[in-house]
Each structure stands twice: as structure tokens, then as C-alpha cells.
Amino acid sequence: MTNHKPEAKSRSDEAAEGPDGGWSWPLVGALFVSTSLVFGLMRSLGVFFVEFVQYFEESAQAISWISSTGLAAQQFFSPLGAALCNAYDTRVVVMTGGFLAGLGFILASQATCLVHLYLSMGLISGLGWGLVFTPMVATVVANITRRRALALGLGFSSIGIVSFIFNPLFQFLVETYAWRGALLILGGLSLNIVPCGALIRPQRRPKAPEKVDSESRPSCAEVLRRVASYVELPLLMERPYLTYTSAVTLLNVGYFVPYFHLVAHSRQAGFSDYQSAFVMSAAGATDILGRVASGWFSDLGKFRLLHLLTLWTGLAGVFIMLLPVSSVFGSYAALMVISLLYGFCSGAMTSLVFAVVPMIVGVERVMGALGLLQLIESGAGLLGTPLSGLLKDVTGNYIASFMVAGGFVVLGTLTMTTLPHYFSCTDPPSPRRRSHDDNDKSLHFELEQISRSPSDAGHRGVQ
User: Matching InterPro entries, A to Z (predicted)?
Assistant: First the structure.
């Protein structure tokens, strides 16, 4: 009899987080496909770069804003996707995002000017990506508990895998059907996100604690309160979440720099075009290995996920700073070794960045927390590459660019060490969302205490 209630509580907690079986692993497969059609496709759009420059006769900077707009839109609209999932159904939101992603490419295939491409491939497809990525990640996090890091590592490994497949495939499509026909095919390919969203089972939502009369309309304050709860804006008032978000934002400044400038730096160092391209391909291969291996090792439970995350991020920052140093002496072998190590560490940290979030905010608020995280770090992702390009223009080489990028990653690692209970050997209990009933009870209790205060009692006695 004494053990009955704790068992019920533990079962309810496990049900809230989701079992590691049944329908959970098909969701990992859906995450695998959807991330490949978001970030894998986004990484491979460089094939169309030369085609757009020649057809529209515009500068390279103007063409570059197409992919930058898509990346910024994906991160900017992530809170919108999280809010819609909290308010309505995750399945419908993801399926709508897949439709918009495909629609953007289909409209881009009929573009007659760059503005058309900005609106279609940038804004519409970016909006669709924002409605897909965060809800899919949050769904996997909520449904898998014990092997969460491994599940995220497997889901994100598709980004590196399809990067090898999409580049030659897109080049073949462009040569066969021209860029308009290739974009039309990519639109149809992106529509495969829709059946991935259909795999998400609708969640049972608890009944609302308050009922509004049909005749009365909710006030403006009530609407704002509901919107804030859907977006999880109260998280911005919590120190652990702000500290972690700041750390990830600093990481994001330098994380993408090698992907954009490593090939150009290798060519400037005197290596051939083939050798320079192979350096990035090798880093992408170890990136895939790092995502899976890190997820498997993290789920063994030997170390805290936060400690492993700081280990991989710190090493990634150091290896970024070593990339230009290894090529100063003209050693291609040294550059290749550092690139392989950087690729492994950058892949190992990716899945842990998302796996740590539920330990900081709780599983119930993961959806909104990931959306806000994507929004805040979007500016840092756009800042890193132009900053490194500016340093290259000023100094004439990429040494300062990689040094500054690696410094930002190391600074983000140091910021993580300021999280509460960081130096503890065990994870603190995950915070849980306070229900409206709990808030109302605490408010009524405080009002009763005020009404029964000694000064109030003395005042009533004098009267």
C-alpha cells in the first residue's frame, strides 16, 4: 500500500516523457528524412549559385542572400512553429511546413528576378523549414528518454549523408533539366516532409482550467498571456535558460565558418582544387561519425551530457583555431588531420546541444525552448560568416578569421560552465511547468496572509 502512490507517480512521469520503444523510433526515421530535406538540401544549394549568377547577371553578394534569407527565415519562424504546436496539433503544423517548403521551390522554378527568389526560396521555403525542424526535434525529445542523445545523433546524421548525395544529384539535374526543372524536382522532393509529419501521433491535451463564457470575449491581456505561454516567453526570465542560450549563441558565431571558408583557405594555402574539396568532404565524413558515436557514448550514462557537450565544443573551438596554423607550413597531412578532428567534434556537439535543453527547462517546455533558442541564435549564425569575410579582406588571409571563430566557440564553452550545478557529478532534477491551478492557489494563499496580517488585525480592532 505504501509503494502504490510512488509507482503511479513514476509511471505518470515516464508517460509524460515517452517510452523508448513502440512508435518512438519511426519518429526518429521521420526526423532523419525531414532534416535531410531541410539542412541537407540547404547545404547543397551552392550548385545553383553559378547558374543564378550567369542567368540573372547579378553580383555574387546579391545571389548569396538567397540562401542567407532561407536560413534566417528558418530560425526566425521557429518560435512561430513552436507556438502553433503548443496551441494546436504538431502533426498539422509539420505537414503544413512540408507543403510550404515544396511550394517555395516550385514557385522559384518560375522566377524572373532575384526578388522572386528571395520571396520563394528564401521566405516561403524558410517559413516551411521553421515549421518543420523545431517541432520534429521536440517530438523526438519528448518521446525518447533513455536513448535521447543517440536518437538525435541518428536523426541529424542525415545532414552529412545527403550532402554527399545531393551535390552530384543536383548537378546532374541542372545539366539535364536546367535550373528551372531542377528546382521543380526539388519542390516535389521537399513535399516528402508531409508524410513525415503524418507519422506524428496527436497528443492528448489536458482540459483548460478556466472556461470562458460564450458571450464574453477574452481581453487583450488574456490573449497576450496565452501567446506568451505558447511561445514560452517566461523562459527568458530564468537564468539557466538565458545562460545556456547565450552559450549556444556564441558557439553559433564560429560554428559555420569552416563550412564556408575552409575550401577557400586551402586553395589560398597552395593546395589544388581537388585537395581543397577533399578536405571538406573528409570533415563531413567524420561529422557523421561524430554525431552517432557521441549519441551512443552519451547514453551510456558514464558522464553528464552537459560535461560532454563542453568537452566537444571546447575541442571544436581549439581545432578551428588550429586549421590555419596547420597549413602555414604547407603540410597537407596536418591540415587533413585537423580537419578530421574538427569534423568529428563539430558533429559530436550537434546532437548534445538539443539533448541538454530538456534538462534545463523540462520536457514539457522543450517545444517553446527550442523555438526561442533558434530565434536568438539566428543573428549569430548570420554574423559569423560576414565577420570572417571582413577579417580576410582586412588581413589578406583567413588566419584571423579562423582564430576569431574558434575564440567564439571557446567563449561559448566557458559560458556553459557558469550554469547552476555545473560542477556537480549528477544532474539536478528537471524543472516542471507550474500549472494555472498552482498559480491560483499560491495567489489566494498570499491574499489570505495579507488579510490576516497583524497590522490589518490591529487596524480592524481600533475600528
Answer: MFS, MFS_dom, MFS_MCT_13, MFS_trans_sf, Proton-linked_MCT
For every residue of 422-434, DSSP letters joined together read TT-SSPPPPP-PP
**Which residue shows C-alpha cell 588550429?**
322
Half-sphere exposure of 343 (CA within 13 A, CB side): 23
pTM (2 d.p.): 0.73
Q: pLDDT at position 415, please?
A: 94
Burial 108-125 (b: 16+ CB within 10 A, else e): bbebeebeebbbbbbbbb
Residues of the chain with CATH 1.20.1250.20: 20-202, 231-424
pLDDT tens digits for 106-139? 999 998 888 999 899 889 999 999 999 889 988 8
CA 202/CA 88 separation, integer angstroms: 10
How confident is the model over 10-27, as pLDDT tens digits? 444 444 445 555 677 888
Q: Which three cell numbers stand for residue 113?
A: 528576378
Nearby residues of 412 by Cβ (< 8 Å), 6 or more positions away: 246, 247, 248, 249, 250, 251, 253, 313, 317
- Alpha-carbon distance of 313 to 251, in angstroms, equals 8
CATH code of the domain occupying 231-424? 1.20.1250.20
Question: What do you get for the CA distance between the two ends of the chain, in Å?
Answer: 54
